[in-house]
Amino acid sequence: MKEESCSTCPSKSACAGGCERSDAEMAEMYDLDADTTEGHMVWVELEHGEGVPKVSEVSLELLSKAKRFGDQRVIAVAFGRESVREIAPVLYSHGADTVYHVRNPSLIDFHLPTFAHGLTTVVERVRPNTLLMGATDLGMELAATVAWQLKVGLTADCTGLDIERGVLRMTRPTFGGNLMATIVSEGRPQMATVRPGAFPVEEIEEGRRGTLINWPIKMVEGTVAEQVSDVDVQDCASEPTELIISVGAGIGNLRNLELAKEAAERLGAELACSRSVVEKGWMEQTSQIGQTGRSVSPRVYLALGVSGAAQHQVGMSRSKNIIAVNNDPEANIHQIANVSIIGDVGEFLKRLLERLDRLDRANGASEA
Questions:
Q1: What is the Cα–Cα distance from 300 to 302, expressed in whole angstroms?
Q2: Which domains does the chain have, with CATH numbers?
Q3: What's the pLDDT score for residue 239?
């Protein structure tokens, strides 16, 4: 009988155990770390009026830009209850190779929970390398929610996009527009919202054909605020020195501040704040994080109502994981957060405490 041999060994001899090749060598030999994502996905924003919906100009700009990348297929995703057969040729002619029509008979107007769920499921099915959306009111709201659901980063309000070997370089203004920053993302898909007018619309290719895929979905009940309650608070629980809950002007009122204090106490966290909270007289200057305060580097930094001004970022930018809760989708904190939640801070805190109550009751029952 022929002796079995190991294909990774130069001598092709039988493996006697204790392979001399390192994990890194094996990964490189078999390309185990290769990126398996493929394609550039564009969310198509439709303008509804009389008759057939019209594709927004920024969506056409993004399709043209994605086509110019030239390295992978272009995927368009459109929502609605009516057939998109009338607009599919427009999307093909501007660069789309595949069009996903996410549809439901009840899907008349923009409905954030359903749109976010629908786009997330398509992304998880297709696994695109990039996801591009217009930096419009709807686009920014949808992008932030989808990024949170996918647990990936989001670069907002980009004015430039370049790609090299699959890595998307996203350029956006920062520090009040005085500087331009180029950002890359480690996660996939690489997500960006792009300022309308940033790119030209290429000449259309009449008669260009593609593939239309109907993607039926169910309407999602509830609101985004209710979805926020699904954040796993056990992921936030950590050693006292590893979790910081920081509050900013967006905390709103002293009642919400008391809720933040309660959450910090129950999670074993340090409660900190931005300069604006100190100036209101709500917290001491010793709790301030920022250029004129302290610098910290916790494992988790939960920013509640913190706008993310440059002075504050100086003090917390070394945090390993940043979770931002702010009802302003354009707040600077969202640009550096690992997880961004667009929503009311008070509502988030109430649901966080309710979740902690449920965990306490469950733990008490199991101990009994």
A1: 6
A2: 40-221 (3.40.50.620), 226-367 (3.40.50.1220)
A3: 38
